[in-house]
Design a protein that fits this description.
The complex is a heterodimer of chains A (about 100) and B (about 425).
Chain A lengths: L1 H19 L8 H7 L2 H4 L19 H13 L7 H5 L4 H12 L3
Helix pairs in contact in A: 2-6, 4-6
Chain B lengths: L3 H16 L14 E6 L3 H13 L4 E7 L4 E2 L4 H5 L9 E2 L2 H6 L3 E4 L2 E5 L4 E4 L4 E3 L2 E4 L3 E3 L10 H6 L8 H12 L5 E6 L9 H16 L4 E6 L8 H10 L4 E4 L6 E3 L4 E3 L4 E3 L2 E4 L3 E3 L1 H4 L5 E2 L3 E2 L1 E2 L4 E2 L5 E3 L14 H19 L9 E9 L5 E11 L4 E4 L5 E2 L5 H19 L1
Classes of the chains: A mainly alpha (about 100), B alpha/beta (about 425).
């Protein structure tokens, strides 16, 4: 019993350690970032069929990333995506593209 | 049988033993369990309910308490007022949340919060225990700021139609009944209020309707603000198209209303209208303002931007229009949906003893119709700033449409279908 209690205390300390770690990346960062796109592109990139919005689920990572880069640079004309893509870092866009590529 | 606490201890023992001296195995990788109660089934509440279930692989129990039987969307409701859509077009049920996601939906009203005991009381008398509580109560109107609107009768004559539903239909009816040559006056409160571009969109869509059907009529916009608060250049251009019908008056704060004669009383002027539409000043919904939760300016909830948890009431998260916004952050349905996802992710971390994601991102898109087909947008992306402990717009990002266009008219309708599905299906 004593061992159990001590371990629980140590564990709690460990958890506090995690909580104070600050900028350690969240394991669900890609999922969380991709969720910011769902309002227009559907949950997990599965756009409502016939809505006219582009489905991103299952799109090849490199293809999607290039498109996002082209929106950012202005190479690809857009009504709104040039303004939105500039709000994310290159690393964030990579995470988002990889996440959607992995969606079936 | 192990109960949950014993299980956690045993798991911790096993994890701790394996991971010593690092201890990192303690809570990491545990599947979140627990019960989250969500209050309010709008853009924020419905989204957080779905995402908590989806992201926990149905491991976390979610109860959604919503007073209305159906969801009616504020975005797109100006199209109903302008006669371009019907209320049925912007109404959806909660069946998807119930049947697909296993959310327990209760049509009820939360009347009290016992934050220390982690319980809420409902109007029906039921008491719900929770591990985490999410309030997405939207806005409450400050009718006390508009003398003359104290009585129900006055409020049934001078409508706000700023919560979609019966008032949306009633305002449409008033416009249909208005004679050609009548005056529609719309009073806008000082910012911040729900949906910054909404009043200007409404003015355009009412003008669009009157121009086609009752061209001798007038739209009078009485804005308490010193200028158009959102998409100023684009709305100024749109207003020019309604020249002769639409008149915009800045610095025109409503002081009082005489409901019987539909008269708006300003500081130096009185405006008699045939249809008077007053959007009153607003604050966070009642359940957030009457539960001891810390407010800013006595109106909006003060939250921690990493988790949307109240700064003084542990275990209670508040999202959507009810919060004190970060710099340049609008009160919009889109933004409430984004708050909901940051909150769902944070709660799932907290339920297994992990810190919330230290780098949350939210973004906003607001489309506004300037007539039945042409639309303008404003967009922004906001990222957490660890030094300032708030979310700030990313430099170089965001912006507005180059000009009103039909392509974005289609995008706006697509946005609605996708966001409604993202929260409810």
């Amino acid at each position: 019993m004593k061992l159990l209690r001590w371990t629980t205390v140590l564990c709690l300390l460990g958890v506090v350690g995690v909580a104070q770690a600050g900028n350690k990346a969240d394991p669900n960062l890609a999922r969380n970032l991709a969720a910011t796109c769902a309002n227009c592109h559907g949950t997990d990139g599965k756009a409502v069929p016939g809505s006219g919005s582009e489905a991103l689920a299952g799109v090849e990572k490199d293809k999607l990333l290039q498109k996002l880069r082209d929106f950012r640079s202005g190479a690809k004309p857009a009504t709104i995506m040039h303004q939105i893509s500039r709000g994310y870092t290159e690393a964030q866009l990579e995470l988002v593209a990889a996440y959607f590529a992995a969606q079936k | 049988m192990l109960n949950r606490r014993d299980f956690m201890k045993t798991a911790a023992l096993a994890g701790g033993a394996m991971a010593l001296p690092g201890l990192s195995g303690c809570a990491m990788g545990s599947r979140p369990r627990g019960h989250v109660v969500v209050v309010g089934g709008g853009f924020g509440g419905a989204t957080v309910a779905k995402y908590l279930r989806m992201w926990s692989q149905m491991g976390v129990d979610v109860t959604l308490v919503e007073r209305n039987p159906l969801f009616i969307s504020c975005p797109m409701s100006n199209l109903v007022i302008g006669g371009d859509k019907t209320l049925a077009d912007i109404t959806m049920g909660y069946d998807g949340l119930k049947n697909t996601w296993g959310v327990k939906v209760m049509q009820d009203t939360v009347t009290g919060i016992d934050a220390a005991g982690r319980k809420v009381t409902l109007a029906s008398g039921a008491v719900l225990s929770y591990d985490r509580l999410v309030l997405s109560p939207g806005i409450e109107f400050m009718f006390d700021q508009v003398p003359g609107l104290e009585s129900e009768a006055a409020r049934n004559t001078v409508l706000h139609a700023w919560k979609a539903g019966p008032q949306t239909v009633a305002l449409r009816k008033q416009l249909e009944d208005m004679k050609d040559g009548g005056v529609y006056a719309l009073a806008i409160p000082k910012a911040p209020y729900r949906c910054p571009p909404g009043p200007y969109e409404r003015a355009c869509l009412v003008a669009n309707y009157l121009k086609k059907t009752k061209p001798k009529s007038k739209v009078l916009v009485l804005d308490a603000n010193e200028e158009i608060t959102s998409k100023k250049g684009l709305f100024t251009k749109a207003f020019e198209k309604y020249q002769g019908i639409l008149e915009y008056r800045p610095n025109s704060e409503l002081r009082e209303v005489d409901a019987a004669s539909r008269t708006a009383i300003l500081e130096f002027d009185k405006v008699k209208a045939d249809v008077l539409n007053v959007v009153p000043p607003q604050r966070a919904g009642d359940i957030a303002t009457k539960s001891g939760i810390k407010l800013i300016n006595s109106r909006w909830v003060d939250i921690d931007w990493l988790s949307f948890e109240s700064v003084n009431t542990p275990g209670v998260h508040v999202i959507g229009d009810a919060i004190f916004p970060a710099p340049t952050m609008p009160k919009s349905g889109h933004m409430a949906n984004q708050h909901a996802k940051v909150t769902a992710a944070a709660i799932l971390n907290l339920l297994v003893g992990e810190a919330p994601n230290p780098n949350p991102v939210v973004m906003n898109t607001c489309y506004s119709f300037v007539d039945s087909k042409n639309v303008i947008h404003v967009a922004s992306v906001h990222q957490y700033d660890a030094d300032k402990k708030t979310v700030l717009p990313m430099p170089g990002s965001g912006g507005v449409s180059a000009a009103a266009n039909e392509l974005e008219g289609k995008a706006a309708l697509s946005w609605a279908r996708n966001i409604w599905a993202d929260m409810l299906v």
